[in-house]
Amino acid sequence: MLKLKKRNHQRQLKISEHLKRSLSDITKSYFFENIDTPFKILISEVNVSIDLKTAYVFVLPIWLKEKKLEELLFLEILRGEAHVFRKKLGTYLSMRYTPKIIFKIDTLEKDSQKIENLFNDPKIAQDLN
């Protein structure tokens, strides 16, 4: 969860969930042009800033071929298309402002794998018993 100076208010959480659903609907049918490696996007979380003008979208790529892109290149492609997502998102929302979309890679899966590997280490497993 994005750390904010104030706690998340109910309205922020409601809008975050609405943005997540709307972006998921948009990305289901969206096709990225001019790329050799096709992919789909899995949106794991959306966090909205306190003023509701910025949305941080945490994504994971789902590769449709064996060839994968680097994370930085993947983010560059998403950032290049952010204005298109924002424009389409405006039709889904009934808000005064459509939030600026900032894409970030979700690292939760990698972090959980590191913790799992630590627990499977014999030295640490010995200390836990």
What is the secondary structure topology, with strand pairs?
Layout (H helix, E strand, L loop, with lengths): L9 H19 L10 E10 L5 E10 L7 H10 L1 H11 L7 E6 L2 H13 L1 H7 L1
Parallel strand pairs: 2-3
Antiparallel strand pairs: 1-2
Helix pairs in contact: 1-3
Key structural traits:
129 residues, alpha+beta, GMP Synthetase, Chain A, domain 3, 47% helix, flat
Structure in words:
- 47% of the residues lie in helices and 20% in strands.
- It has 129 residues and is α+β, with helices and mostly antiparallel strands.
- Helix 1 packs across helix 3.
- The longest helix is centred in the first third of the chain and has 19 residues, at 10-28.
- The model has no long low-confidence stretch (mean pLDDT 82).
How would you briefly describe this protein structure?
The protein is α+β, with helices and mostly antiparallel strands and 129 residues long.
Shape field: flat
Structural class determined from secondary elements: alpha+beta
CATH architecture classification = 2-Layer Sandwich
DSSP helix count?
Answer: 5
